[in-house]
């Protein structure tokens, strides 16, 4: 894989507890995973402040995490405990989905990530933060870092790597929908919305949709997982239940290509 930032998110540099001298970066990772766990398990009482200080609140949240997962309730986080906290990220990025074609693998990989509930966090008043965002965005995070293209390219990278292919032969590594769309136009593999409306099946599962704001401006993207009548089924990052272009997680959605200007970046030349 090209995008390997996720590996750095799976470990802490030393055991952390309320009574040890801890690196702030390690504690921020622990607190982030405690909050991500709370988003999926709201009754676990693991939500806590994300400030880099391993105080009584963080210790109690760790104990609650350990109790919820039938671990020894020490309030101490070593790399074994941390690995369980970060298991969703590891599961997503090390999944080895099966499929007969690259298209099958792209869809299956996107589904594998969706099943692990990737969410962003707000850290130090900065949205678009946390281990999932950093993994998709090669270490970058914070309010300006919209991560929908980072997500889409991570999925394509992971799937292509299973076939020993480099997704950068198809598109540049970029977080910009505009850059990717422009490259698609140059290579004549960006299918415009007016063509899709005439023949929806020019798009295929595994392709990448690009939401157009104007003829030269695209501001959101995701993976197409199915085509039915007037609708693309999708899995996309940095969205929400309303289909925002700057939401809070990875969601499976439906998008009507007759009501929205959805262009399609075809991955056929990589297949």
Number of domains: 2
Give the uncertain stretches in residue-range form.
none
Number of strands: 8
Tally of helical segments? 9
State the end-to-end distance: 17 Å
The biggest sheet, with number of strands, parallel, antiparallel or mixed sense and barrel status, is: 6 strands, antiparallel
Strand order of the largest sheet: 3-8-4-5-6-7
Rg on CA atoms, Å? 20 Å
CATH topology of the largest domain: endopeptidase fold (from Nostoc punctiforme)
Mean pLDDT rating: 97
Q: What is the level-2 CATH architecture name of the largest domain? A: Alpha-Beta Complex
Report strand %: 15-25%
H-E order:
HHHHHEEHHHEHEEEEE
Task: Please characterize this protein's 3D structure.
The protein is an alpha+beta fold and 271 residues long. The protein has two domains: 5-86, Muramoyl-pentapeptide Carboxypeptidase, domain 1 (Orthogonal Bundle); 95-265, endopeptidase fold (from Nostoc punctiforme) (Alpha-Beta Complex), CATH 3.90.1720. The chain is 35% helix and 18% strand. It contains nine helices and eight strands. The protein has helices spanning 24-40, 56-68, 79-85, 87-94, 102-114, 131-136, 148-162, 177-186, 193-198, and strands at residues 121-123, 126-129, 190-191, 208-214, 217-228, 231-239, 249-256, 262-265. Strands 3-8-4-5-6-7 form a six-stranded antiparallel sheet. β4 and β5 (217-228) form a beta hairpin. α4 (87-94) runs antiparallel to α5 (102-114) and α5 (102-114) crosses α7 (148-162). The chain is elongated and about 65 Å long. The mean pLDDT is 97.
């Amino acid at each position: 894989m090209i995008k390997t930032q996720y590996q750095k998110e799976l470990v802490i540099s030393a055991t952390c507890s309320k009574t040890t001298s801890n690196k702030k970066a390690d504690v921020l990772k622990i607190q982030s995973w405690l909050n991500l766990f709370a988003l999926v398990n709201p009754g676990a009482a693991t939500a806590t402040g994300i400030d880099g200080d391993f105080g009584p609140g963080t210790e109690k949240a760790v104990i609650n995490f350990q109790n919820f997962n039938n671990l020894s309730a020490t309030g101490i986080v070593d790399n074994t405990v941390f690995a369980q906290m970060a298991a969703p990220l590891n599961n997503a990025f090390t999944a080895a989905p099966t499929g007969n074609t690259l298209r099958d693998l792209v869809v299956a990989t996107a589904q594998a990530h969706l099943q692990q509930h990737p969410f962003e966090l707000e850290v130090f008043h900065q949205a678009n933060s946390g281990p999932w965002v950093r993994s998709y965005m090669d270490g970058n995070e914070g309010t300006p870092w919209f991560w929908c293209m980072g997500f889409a390219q991570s999925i394509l990278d992971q799937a292509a790597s299973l076939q020993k292919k480099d997704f950068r032969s198809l598109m540049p590594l970029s977080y910009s929908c505009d850059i990717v769309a422009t490259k698609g136009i140059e290579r004549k593999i960006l299918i415009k919305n007016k063509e899709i409306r005439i023949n929806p099946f020019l798009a295929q599962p595994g392709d990448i949709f690009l939401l157009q704001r104007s003829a030269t401006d695209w501001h959101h993207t995701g993976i197409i997982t199915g085509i039915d009548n007037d609708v693309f089924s999708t899995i996309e990052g940095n969205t929400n239940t309303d289909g925002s272009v700057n939401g809070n997680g990875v969601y499976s959605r439906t998008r009507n290509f007759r009501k929205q200007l959805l262009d399609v970046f075809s991955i056929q030349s990589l297949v």
